[in-house]
Amino acid sequence: MSLLATKALTKSFGDNYAVNRVDFAVQQGEVLALIGSNGAGKTTLVNLVSGLLRADSGQIIFENNDVTQQKAYDRIKVGIARSFQLVNLFDHLSCVDNVALSIFSREGKTQTLTALASRDRAVWDEAHELLRQFGLDRHSTMLAGSISHGERKLLDVAVAYALRPKLLFLDEPTSGVSTREKAPIMDIVSSIVRSGGITVVIIEHDMDIVFRYSERIVVMHQGTVLADGTPDQIRANDAVTTTLIGTHPTGEPAFGSSGNA
Amino acid sequence: MSTATTAVSAARIPWRTLAWLVPVALLLLAAPYLVDEFQIITLTYGLIAAIGALGFNLLLGYTGLLSFGHSAFFGGGAYAVAFMVKYLKIASMELFLAGSILANAIVSLLFGFVCVRYTRIFFGILTLCLSQVLWSLAFKFFWVTGGTDGLRVPTPTLLGSVAGGDKMQFLSHQYYYYVLGVFAICVFLMWVIVHSPFGKALQAIRDNETRAEFIGIRIRRYRLIAFVISGVFTGIAGALWAPLNGLASPDVLIWTFSGEIVFMTVLGGFRTFVGPIVGAIAFTYLKTYAVGFTTYWQLLLGVVLVVLVLLLPTGIMGAVERLTARLRGTR
């Protein structure tokens, strides 16, 4: 049984089908990569599943429940969380506040008006522990808007992870980060999500990262699923290689035999 | 480096806070024995405005919504009192407060239901429009509301005791302490609210609506709750204002009065908790003296506003914070 399955999911913007009758499934416990060139529909698919966008047609089934009509906050309650490609944080709050808010929300405590947030030790202990895991503990009292881009990307993931979701979408967790910083970020993220035992879908452009950190790869092209398989299968897939050639920043074939995966 | 970090540390009530809180409280308590009646009555107006601005700032400073219609709630509170006097023959201040809280809860729930669907300028304009509806009702239905004459509000009973003797004496002593008490309760309640998990959620909504939704916060509902709390607080201010002023008139329902509430909050600094309080009291004195000093008092206030925006964009408290930070840095 799949944790998540979409059935003939469709979303168009004008005449352009960003996601066209996509059947996409995520199995419990796997780390899946969603790849494709710009405009392939990856982020739209995540936006549909997470509830940022409404589907034109089709279904989204999560743990055997149809969540297609549910609002974003209801989907979060059932266990679907996401990070954002463009960093999306509470910039005027401290880093630890950013993470603590997720915890307060998860525990249903944000509806409390009559108790001081600062008195809830359990929440703050957990928030500090999470920051420590993400290597951000020394920034805990700094405003989220004032730390470096790479750290903001990590904090963005931490805020989503703090919700303890069953399924976590990471929308380009290393975008805009220098090549040197990418691997450390992915090492932190992947070790945390694996130890937390949560199912992860990573959207990524960087093929090195895709091959190194995922167990299964789904390739999207022009709103449809082009291929689905293990890294080896994808590497050997001619259709994929042909479609994605030229999208790699170096202009080389996206993943030739020299891949260091 | 201000709001958030200070908000977090302030929640622990550091000694530094007590160091200024205690003297200020003592001064406020001793004030009627230190200065004349006129000053005390001006201060009472200031404290009342502070309650209103505090309510207003829950929306502006903490939720990121600029309301241009808070006169509706201030006036709503004042008229609720006047109606209770006129139609129910009530004279108890406690019942006035309860009645205005109830009335404003209903009005702000109705207004909020419409307004919180929008943000930024759309929210501001909607609140302005709705408040003008209330103003025009008060203005046109003169047989109910007294029209431009307003409705008289006599001296109320405080905690069951009937006021006797000189009205000025009553207002500058018993009534002042009563207002001070309500003010203290309101400040305490608002302080707890903005430092509660709910208050944190509001700040999250202010900073980033989309992300707030994606950590599971129901944005509209939270905004609506904040809107109602804000309206009720400002309504309490209106209810306290009516007996002090002796009259509930459309002046406090019209949109320019909403502008005054915005002005005082910006003057004090909407990024800090005490900013609106300081701003409201400063504004009340400024206006009182400007009106006494010149017939062109609006011109004077206009100049102050321009100077404020250019030189003190973070308001009085923002400037004070920067100053103390700099002093601490040089030490």
Give the structure's gist in a few sentences.
The complex is a heterodimer of chains A (261) and B (331). With 261 residues, chain A is an alpha/beta fold.
The largest sheet of chain A, given as strand count, sense and whether it forms a barrel, is: 6 strands, mixed
Which range best describes the helical content of chain A: under 10%, 10-25%, 25-40%, 40-55%, 55-70% or over 70%?
25-40%
Q: What's the total number of strands of chain B?
A: 2
Give the helix tally of chain A.
9
According to DSSP, the number of beta strands of chain A is 10
Decide which structural class fits the backbone of chain A: alpha/beta
> What would the principal axes of the Cα set say about the shape of chain A?
globular
Radius of gyration of chain B: 20 Å
Structure explained in plain terms:
The complex is a heterodimer of chains A (261) and B (331). Helices cover 35% and strands 24% of the residues of chain A. Chain A has 261 residues and is an alpha/beta fold. Chain A has a domain at 2-88 and 167-244: Rossmann fold (3-Layer(aba) Sandwich), CATH 3.40.50. In chain A, the strands form 2 sheets. In chain A, strands 6-7-8-3-9-10 form a 6-stranded mixed beta sheet, with helices on both faces. In chain A, strands 2-1-4-5 form a 4-stranded antiparallel beta sheet, with helices on one face. In chain A, helix 3 (95-106) crosses helix 4 (121-133), helix 3 packs parallel to helix 5 and helix 5 packs parallel to helix 6 (179-196). Chain A starts with a strand and ends in a 17-residue tail after the last helix. Residues 246-261 of chain A have low confidence and may be disordered. Chain B contains 15 helices and 2 strands. Helix content of chain B is 78%, strand content 1%. Chain B starts with a helix and ends with a helix. Chain B has one domain (3-330): Orthogonal Bundle (ABC transporter involved in vitamin B12 uptake, BtuC), CATH 1.10.3470. The interface between A and B is large, with 41 and 31 residues.
